[in-house]
Amino acid sequence: MRQALRILSLTGIWVLLWGKLSIANVTSGVVVSSLLLVLYPSGTMVKTPVRRPRPIAFVRLIGYIFGQIVVSNAHIAREIITRGSNIRTGIVACRLRTDSERTITFLANVLSLSPGTMPVRVQVDPPLISVHVLHLDHPDTTRKRVARLEDLSVRAFGSPEAVAALSMGVQPSAAANDAVIAASPDDLDESGCG
Asked: CA nearest 86: which of 140, 132, 145, 134?
């Protein structure tokens, strides 16, 4: 019964994507849905509990994200409107304190929403996000913003153990945070690092 509901749901989405209800679209939707469910059965997925967000922490996270998007849009708008360019790009490695793949994925997606920042490399072991920044004032500023976003995300969605680890002040190793991977071409030395 559950499988039939999944096929029906996926077929409905398929028909909506095609924009026309026809026998061909319904038939191809059933075939594609069935194929997807055979190739990716739901029993093979890792079952980790989905936690409800903590309401106050969630509101803080949404407020922070919204504020960062507004500020980034203002910087981009100013860059477009004014003469000359204040763009100083760079890629900054930001060590993370969480090892949760969900949280790391969430962080990468939120960072990509904000104009002027784009994750270019994400790794889980050790947890690290390399972020391309359009207006690179100082690498530590970018690291502090990513750390703040991580802190708010873990407090909103993380396990009690992850929140406790943040509260105890567990910090990432400084080794990965020591260098900008690449700044503007003028700032690069022979090794290619800033």
From this structure: 134
